[in-house]
Amino acid sequence: MPNTILTGTTLCCEAAISVKVLKGDGSESPSYNYELHNKPCFGIYFNSAPNSNGRTKTLVDIKADVYQYIDQDMLVKNHENNYCSLAPDQLHKYHRELEFVFAKYSSKEDTGVKLSVEETTRLYDQDRCKDGVLCPAIKIHVEAKKMSAYQFLCLLTLIRCSSEYPNALLLKECFNLQEKGYFREFSIMSLFALLQNRLQYSYDQGPIQWVEDSRHYFYKPSCLEFLQKRIMCNSAAYVDTNYKVQNFYEVVERGPRNKSKFVLPKYTMGGGDATGKGKLFDTNAIITTIFDGDVPEDHVECFKNILAAIKGQFPKLKVDYPQELKS
What we know:
Strand content: 15-25%
Helix content: 25-40%
Strand order of the largest sheet: 3-2-4-9-8
Number of helices: 12
Distance between the termini: 40 Å
Number of strands: 11
């Protein structure tokens, strides 16, 4: 497969994070503060003290600024994997969904999560290996009064999906599809799970788990209400996640009748076949098409086939906008 503008990029996480830990006696710890500059993912924070003890600690007074570059040259010329291609209204919609899903610490207590965005600049210096320049960026500000360590990790992971590739391109395609009239019955977060059944992009700090053979499992495109319950501390579904971010989305096993009636290819990471060929974003032409707001025709047919199989197993699948099914 030829190289593309997504090939050989370097993770370039830019963020500032501050949290306190709620102790057993009800008192609060001093602030834990983290500055991430040109770092891979949120790894430094993921492996820090607030996330020890199996990510079961309770955090309070949570603040974070996550920076995402908005100049495409950061991706295309500098090969930095931190570029947000979403339009402001698209990012706004995605963040409102995140706020809803993460609104509840438990069934009786709110998190107080709020997300806001402002345009700014961010120093870019290749981890101090070159003269720094200020590059156009957005600052995603996160505030919350109370979250579990696991909840906050999941929120950071999903925020990063708007700038880290290839997930960021899949998220962009979710918006493109709906703006072209496809899959409008789904929320963006649910549609993202649906499309992951092709992309299969799993890793230890991403929102989906690895499956050995995609022909035997679905990433279930659950509605926002279910996702909210899955992330609430005192729910049964919350325990099922084992407090791992890659278990944020539910994985379900396909039934034998479903596999017999709906024969889907075996997709590997990147959406290719068993040999790695035919990946979802395998040419610059396809990538540019999606950046420009369009949808490759073969993608639509593939996603429709996956949805047909999912509906075959879940004929009463709950969606966020059922009125769109009638339009």
